[in-house]
Amino acid sequence: MSVAPLSSKSYRYIFAGGGMSALSLVYYLSQSSRAQEPMLIIDPSLKLVNDKTWCYWSDKSEEFDGIAQKSWKNLWFHGPKGNSIALDIAPFEYHKIRSIDWYQFIKKRLSQFPNIEFLEAEVTEIIPEKKGTRVCCTQGEFIATDKVFDSISPYPCEINNPNHLKQHFLGWEIECHFPIFKPEAINLFDFRVAQGTECEFMYVLPTSKKNALFEYTFFSSQVREASFYQDKIKSYIQAYYNLSEEDFQIKEEEKGIIPMCLDTRASQKVAEPIIRIGTSGGFVKASTGYSFLRTQRINQALVKELEKANSSRLVLPNNPFKTWLDKIFIQVLLEQSVAGSEVFEALFQKNKGSKMLRFLDEKTSFWEDISLMATVPTLPFIRAVYHLISHSK
Ligand SMILES: Cc1cc2nc3c(=O)[nH]c(=O)nc-3n(C[C@H](O)[C@H](O)[C@H](O)COP(=O)(O)OP(=O)(O)OC[C@H]3O[C@@H](n4cnc5c(N)ncnc54)[C@H](O)[C@@H]3O)c2cc1C
């Protein structure tokens, strides 16, 4: 990967935004028959800091397992009243990747390709033209002769809209001055912190006896000030580990608002000159907010399509029944006629952990989905279905 000159120039592929989705797409392109094509990645960030944690689960080995900071086989679910369930997730493992390790790994790989250029700039406009697509940025204008991959256009999920569900969270990576954590297991959902009907929980990933990531998370529409989540983390660490602020150091903080809205426009054709990818392209699984592994799978499929001379197939996995289930689930969390913690408790209590993970990955069969839906609180789900049917026109 080299640095692009400051002049107007043509590239086969231009990437507006060079974050997780774009860099992984370039990574797969660099392993394909398109590896030698001229490519330009435009992003104002050089990706020199650890700005995110990417976690995913899988029952087989995946492309980036090797750079995971830690992997776990043991996951806990804690219900709102302290009912704790050790989740039986075999053959799955849960992996945690530090974004800085991932960026360095990808950059090292791409540095072997002089045809892949990186420009530190902000894209201001993407204009389709007859002979290609013009990409305007703060360092000049460039032409994409084939495709622009756009990971910067906003996804239609509004922060202040009460009808739009978001996964919003703030996390602290802390180092305790003495060993206290049990790094063999994580708390995937700790609903002991839940208040009222809003879906809120703590997520705890201990990477060593002294280090752990605590993330206070909501699946709801009302985003809070940073101090709200920070106070929740402090109280949790005090309540469950008896640690005061003098006992630990905050090494890193991360925060995010991930859309949990379904966007029908997210379906797109590979034949189009501008392809939205990543969060922008609807790669996030709406009902979980996870997208790292999903992005890898979609990008691998996308590269196979790009290798064909003519392709018009839809890239995004599109199973109408699963989409419908996501919609119902999201509506239940928005309506809050039942506490989110109760919905999750019912699901995790009555279904094996591995089945839940397959369900969240959209790998369960139709009949497995029906059997799972039979374990959720019935009335709130019927209400949500009624709402969706009556608002479908
Ligand atoms: C803190 C955090 C933790 C997360 N943890 C997980 C997780 O554990 N598991 C999981 O599956 N998902 C997780 N996600 C969700 C998702 O995987 C990430 O958001 C992921 O980075 C999305 O990839 P992306 O390419 O869409 O966006 P990004 O990686 O954010 O990339 C977008 C890029 O566009 C650039 N950009 C923005 N504006 C412009 C512009 N005008 N011109 C040029 N470039 C621009 C940005 O600098 C950025 O590099 C997390 C998200 C956040 C925020």
* Intertermini distance: 49 Å
Largest sheet: 8 strands, mixed
Strand content: 25-35%
pLDDT below 50 for ≥5 consecutive residues: which ranges?
A: none
Could you say how many structural domains there are in total? 3
Give the bound compounds.
Answer: flavin-adenine dinucleotide
Order of helices and strands: EEHEEEEEEHEEEEEEEEHEEHHHHHH
Structural class: alpha/beta
Fold blueprint:
Blueprint: E1 2-3, E2 9-16, H1 20-29, E3 39-42, E4 53-58, E5 70-72, E6 74-78, E7 84-87, E8 93-98, H2 99-110, E9 116-119, E10 123-129, E11 132-137, E12 140-150, E13 166-176, E14 185-190, E15 199-206, E16 211-220, H3 226-241, E17 248-259, E18 274-276, H4 292-307, H5 320-335, H6 340-350, H7 353-360, H8 366-373, H9 378-390
Parallel strand pairs: 1-9, 2-3, 2-12, 3-9, 6-14, 12-18
Antiparallel strand pairs: 4-8, 5-8, 6-7, 10-11, 11-12, 13-16, 13-17, 14-15, 15-16
Helix pairs in contact: 1-2, 1-4, 5-9
The protein binds flavin-adenine dinucleotide (FAD).
